[in-house]
Amino acid sequence: MPSIEQIIKSGDGILLNGPLALLDSTKAIELLIYKALLELFDNVDITNGKLSSSPKAEDFLASLDYRIFQAMKKNGYGNAVSDFTGNFYLLTDNLQDLHQKLGNGIIEKKDINALKRIEVQNTVSNLTEKGLYKDVIAPLRKDLYRNIMFGASLQDTENMIKGYILSTEGQDSRLLSYVNQIATDSLHQYDGSVNQMAKDKLGLNAVRYVGSLIEDSRTQCIKWVEKDIILDTELPKEIEFAINKEIYKGKKCSGMIPGTNKDNFCILRGGYRCRHRAIGYRVKKGK
What we know:
- This protein is mainly α and 287 residues long.
- It has helices spanning 4-17, 20-37, 55-62, 64-74, 77-84, 86-101, 109-127, 129-149, 154-165, 174-202, 219-227, 235-243, 265-268; strands spanning 45-47, 50-52, 206-210, 229-231, 247-248, 251-252, 277-281.
- Strands 4-3-7 form a three-stranded antiparallel beta sheet. A two-stranded antiparallel sheet has the order 1-2.
- A hairpin with a 2-residue loop joins strand 5 and strand 6.
- The two termini are 26 Å apart.
């Protein structure tokens, strides 16, 4: 049987590596999408290297989302998203094993399945048409429209499209950054939600704050990882310490999400895009 620390490490691995295949798939389709968008220049008037509006250009912009989604569909992006959701099932098993190993009790399947179903639905929606349209396609269409209306150069417009769609050695495209953020945050959100539910359902009175520390780890995360176990009676004071940007080991706390409290701490943890875990825990009296 694996130890508690091995189960925690396994869960950390799911959170860290779960998005990688989806990100590889997204990178693989960037060039295909980029080429589809370059067809804009066959549908817009160009004079002395400057763009100008035309009915064909307006039709192209109106079909922008269709063109992007078709390019993604051809390269199997939808299947990659579907495969990614398998990580929620792996994480479910990991969390159930962990809480049993900790002696916290058994998380009811009906409770965890309802939570998983909602999170998977939200994640698929955000990674496909609804989310991509709002955060990638609509802003791109707006910028393209502005460039056409104000006669931007062909080169500037092409560079702008590249920034949205093509990643480079040192810079992720807006598309890849978006997919990475949604995939990573959704797994951590689910992990935190299950741990918060476990605390509430199983009557746990503490959290274990776990995860690796790196050079740019937030000050409060350093403090809490070093502390390891935070009692519920200590949580309000610890959260206030971080929100008030207090100093720990010469560094100021930062990045806490407004509204963080002991009832949602497992979900929000150390702040925006925090990669640590707050695992529900029971400290027995007298310890």
